[in-house]
Amino acid sequence: MLLLVLKRILLGFITLFIVSLITFSGVEVLPGDACTTYLEREAYGAALEACYERLGLNTPAYERYISWAAGVLQGDFGYSLSGEMRINDVLGPRVKNSMVLASASILIGIPIALLLGIITALWRDKLPDIIISTITIFSMTIPEFISATLLILIVAIWLEWLPGIVIVPTGVSISELLPNIILPVIAISMIMTAHMARMVRSSVIQVMASDYVQMAILKGVPYWKMVFKHVLPNALLPAINVVALTIAWLLGGVVVTEVVFNYPGLGRLVIESISNRDLPVVQALAIILASIYVSINLIADLMTLMLNPRLKSLQIKK
Amino acid sequence: MTLEKEQKKNNLDKIFEVIKTMASKPSGLIGLSILLFHVILAITSPLYVPYDYKAIDPSLMLQAPSSEYWFGTDSLGRDVFTRTILGGRTALTVTFFGSLIALLWGGSLGIFCGLVGGKIDEVVMRIIDAFLSIPWILAMLLIVSLLGTTTLVLIPALGFFYGKGIVRVARAATHDVIAKDFIVSARARGHSNLSIIWNEILPNVRDAIMVEGAMRWSWMLLGFSSLSFLGFGVSPPTPDWGLMISNARGLMSFAYWAVLAPIFGLSSLIIGINLTADAFAKALGIDRSTKAPV
Q: pLDDT tens, position by position, for chain A (318 residues)?
């Protein structure tokens, strides 16, 4: 058991190591580097040399990778290009803002998703299922920027209930931030809820068709007792992994949503740093987002392992 | 009739059979019709657009929908109807060829990994895992911002990033058939690996891979439009829904029509592709409802 956990953690680190290699060599291989983009047209002769000298780009790539990776391991991402700020200082408030947005969406989204998923599964192909499923499928398939734009148009412009975009400086406190995030949270949790509700639905339907549930029905176990004691514990377990993947997958979508609402989180930083060609920040973001993805998956794997005694003796393969 | 011709005829029959099954349910029929409508529109629209899509006229700025301008005009005085019916052409072309590339490389690498197994398989799957954990949008934005936003960059880049999920599906499908008797007997007959892949494995994993490819198509369309929306897709003045939404968004309190028209175009196409892909999966007997969107 312990060995299995350790192996999963080790695999996570290997994945992150490969990610760091990919991002580093990707930035290395693609045309243009930090100095040519920073100096733009003046990128020749002495100025270029001086810039290379200052940023240490003269040394071979593997040496730079080692010193960069050593820094990252100690939690130091080096300096950004524009403004020459420490990347840690740039990232800090952004990470916090995005965390607030993500946790609010997850806290709201998961209970609603569970409820909707169970309702649609128990009343399968009846009116509640048809209505809810149609809505969830719609909000799953429509791109984030469309649902967010429609939300702004309807709630902020036509109904004038809430402000349409977030106008706060990057470093505000959480209490100042909260009133501003209602619309972004609705936009994100709507899509997330839809995805998760679909997973829960199909998982519950599968369990309802299983032999032991049929057996319970034949034994005359009351319906709701059967649902809560036999169906849900077995149905929600496999959903954990899928929910984790969904959350991780939405990291990409959060970028777009943050841009639509002008929200000062990691997503907008992705766009800003790429527009400024601030490659050190892009590298740092890639590592951070990949770490979030890997750890969400790891937590989900471990949770399934803890909750399912049958798996403890088996080897989990991804 | 020769054997080969008969084979071809059978394949055609099977395709018709699948399409018939897809169209037999209302959701599949709706999906197919929407998709067909968009494809025909994309091919033929340049023949009958009422106005020039790039003609800027300040005197016509932000006109409300009228009999003359069905969907109104945008902030540069361009006809929104013209731009909307032209707006799917780039998206459809890029994502269609992108999906083909994704299918080809993802499918072949997946089958290869499933077949050889061992160390090579382990290494490739680690690398795929690593690529999966980098958000696609970050990688795409980086590539596009450094290499440019021409279709020649977008198609292979999207094809590459949406193919890695297919590798897994193809690999799993290959694993399912690899231990079956007919493969073992083909090996015993002394067939080469290539012949086994072509004649024994491919016919058995083709359905799973194609369903995955159809699903990727709709996700790729989503990804492509997001890039356009963020200003990293097609470059103006090319009409494109994502770009149109992003441009008209700032003024939507005055001119909501300039936003709603492209939103309608893009949403209907994505829903059409999704319904078609679902019906396709069901017609081939593959259940995708339990899978995560990775």
A: 677 788 888 888 888 888 888 888 877 776 666 666 666 666 666 666 666 666 666 667 777 777 777 777 777 777 776 656 777 777 788 888 888 888 888 888 888 988 898 888 888 888 888 888 888 888 888 888 888 888 888 888 788 777 767 666 766 777 776 777 888 888 888 888 888 888 888 888 888 888 888 888 888 888 888 888 778 877 887 777 777 777 776 666 678 888 888 888 888 888 888 887 777 788 888 888 888 888 888 888 788 777 766 655 544 443
Q: pTM to 2 decimals?
A: 0.83
ipTM: 0.78
Structural domains present in chain A? 2-84 (no CATH), 93-317 (1.10.3720.10)
Task: State how far the alpha carbon of B1 is from the alpha carbons of B6, B7, B8, B14, B32, in Å.
Answer: 7, 10, 11, 18, 33
Domains of chain B, each with CATH number or no CATH:
3-283 (1.10.3720.10)
Residues 224-243 of B with CB under 8 A from A: 225-226, 229-230, 232, 242
CB contact (8 A) between residue B135 and residue A149: no
CB B256 within 8 A of CB A153: yes
Q: Across the interface, do B230 and A203 touch by the CB < 8 Å criterion?
A: no
